[in-house]
Design goal:
CATH topology of one domain: Uridine Diphospho-n-acetylenolpyruvylglucosamine Reductase, domain 3
Mean pLDDT: 76
Low-confidence stretches: 256-283, 326-333, 369-373
Shape: extended
Radius of gyration: 44 Å
Distance between the termini: 74 Å
Helix content: 10-25%
CATH class of one domain: Alpha Beta
Number of helices: 7
Strand order of the largest sheet: 1-2-4-3
Largest sheet: 4 strands, mixed
Structural class: alpha+beta
Order of helices and strands: EEHEEEHEHHEEHEEEHEEEEH
């Protein structure tokens, strides 16, 4: 069993709350969580498709039942199947439809659990004929607040309180569902437009039982004469003779190696009696020759001559003559100007003093050696 602290929301992704989530794998682990609950209690949760906050428990514990996902063998003769509460309806349909079986009530989405469908007592598009989901439950296993697992049958007070009770009587761990036979997994669907609400309701009731599945989308932005206009969709299971041609070329087989607790969803495989079209052979594309690049000759590196430390000694600088006022030129206070030859010699000495040491220090940094000063 895994335990973590998560932020949870409903299907509307609003008002998130933080709770400690427990994900049991067996009934015993689920009972241990219920018996060891804190002051905030524990709430059961499936795939999080509740419109509100029914599967949230701020500051408390949440029992994630998606780990309980075992599907028992279906009995086609009796028309029943036993499964855990954490099994999604989508996965259940993938297992039952290849056997020609289907739950009588299928909601608008398959991404919800069997336990959530019973706790919410969901309707389906054929609600007028089949009723709600809990009507087709033969038995269910209920984990009570005392940590006991009870088998609850229809017709009892606790069953009626559990169906649509949103988990207030306990945690649903498993159920036995009654099934019905269908001709195929294909549907024959018709779509009609209604100009207003009266016409939509009239079309809704005029269909009768010929097409049991019916649902409508209403445009709530329409005003005036178009108030309540919508689109009505009705359907029924198509018989095998009207199936698409490609449906006869594939058969559904159970997945090999599906063990206990694993998904046994059927896999579509090609039938040996009706092979598919031959593979399309593409012309072979000739390979493009690769030409090697010419080798670039390396550039020779000439080492710099080693300079002795004595050559780096700075030559003695001569002091510049001070400006003096001679008696002959007492009216001039400017120092005597140096000749062009003395100025050029001074510039050469400065270049020798500052350029050569700087060059040698950069050479030492490159070569990585330290020379004595």
């Amino acid at each position: 069993m895994s335990v973590d602290t998560v932020s949870l929301t409903g299907w509307g992704r609003t008002s998130p709350t933080t709770a400690v989530r427990f994900r049991p794998r067996t009934y015993e682990e689920a009972a241990a969580v219920v018996r060891g609950r804190g002051p905030r209690g524990v709430v059961a949760r499936g795939l999080g498709r509740s419109p509100g906050d029914a599967a949230q428990n701020a500051g408390g514990s949440v029992l994630d039942l998606t780990g309980l996902a075992r599907i028992g063998a279906a009995d086609p003769a009796a028309g029943v199947v036993r499964c855990d509460a954490g099994v999604s309806l989508e996965r259940l349909l993938r297992v039952l439809l290849p056997q020609g079986l289907l739950p009588p009530v299928v909601p608008g989405t398959g991404r919800l659990t069997v336990g959530g469908a019973i706790a919410s007592d969901l309707p389906g598009p054929d609600h007028r004929r089949s009723g709600s989901f809990a009507r087709h439950v033969s038995a269910l296993e209920l984990l009570t607040a005392e940590g006991e697992v009870r088998t609850v049958l229809p017709g009892t007070a606790i069953f009626d309180a559990t169906a649509g009770g949103l988990g207030l009587t306990g945690v649903i761990l498993g159920a036995t569902l009654r099934l019905r036979r269908v001709g195929s997994a294909m549907m024959s669907v018709s779509t009609e437009r209604a100009g207003d609400l009266d016409e939509l309701l009239a079309r809704f009731t005029a269909g009768g039982d010929r097409m049991p599945y019916a649902s409508a989308w209403i445009d709530l932005t329409a005003r005036g004469r178009s108030t309540g206009r919508g689109i009505l969709t009705r359907g029924e299971h198509a018989p095998p003779p009207v199936r698409p041609a490609h449906a006869g070329r594939t058969r559904l087989l159970p997945r090999a190696g599906a063990g206990r607790g694993r998904s046994s969803a059927p896999v579509a495989r090609a039938s040996p009696e009706a092979p598919g079209p031959p593979p399309l052979l593409l012309p072979r594309v000739p390979s493009v020759p690769v030409f090697p690049l010419p080798r670039v000759p390396s550039v020779p590196v000439f080492p710099l001559p080693r300079v002795s430390p004595s050559a780096l000694a700075s030559p003695r600088r001569r002091a510049l003559p001070q400006a003096t006022n001679s008696p002959k030129d007492s009216c001039s206070s400017r120092p005597k100007l140096r000749t062009s030859s003395s100025r050029s010699r001074r510039r050469e000495r400065q270049m020798l003093d500052f350029t050569v040491p700087t060059l040698m220090s950069r050479m030492d940094a490159i070569s990585g050696s330290v020379r004595p000063s």
